[in-house]
Amino acid sequence: MDKLNIEKQSKTASSVTRTIRISGKAFDKISELAEEHELSFNAVVNQIIEFGLKHLVEKK
Fold it and tell me: Among residues 2, 12, 29, 59, which one has the fewest Cβ atoms lying within 10 Å of its Cβ?
């Protein structure tokens, strides 16, 4: 399986504001990644979501 590669990306013009709940452990890891790659927390979350959706195995 491909691995997630956190990259600097340009901001997208369209976005939706939505509140979600995540575990403290996930929050800490995402915060670490954001700091390490000099990105916003939201940018990392969006990359993780896009990666997950791209590699999703859908039920038939």
Answer: 59
Alpha-carbon distances, residue 28 vs 2, 17, 21, 45, 46 (angstroms): 23, 21, 13, 12, 16
What is the Cα–Cα distance from 52 to 22, expressed in whole angstroms? 15
Rounded to 10 deg, the angle between the 41-54 and 24-36 helix axes is 110
Handedness of CA 4, 9, 14, 19 (dihedral sign): positive
Output the pTM of the full model: 0.81
Q: Is residue 43 part of a domain?
A: yes
40: nearest Cα among 2, 9, 5, 15: 9
Q: Could you tell me the end-to-end alpha-carbon distance of the chain, in angstroms, rounded to an integer?
A: 20
Domain-embedded: residue 50: yes
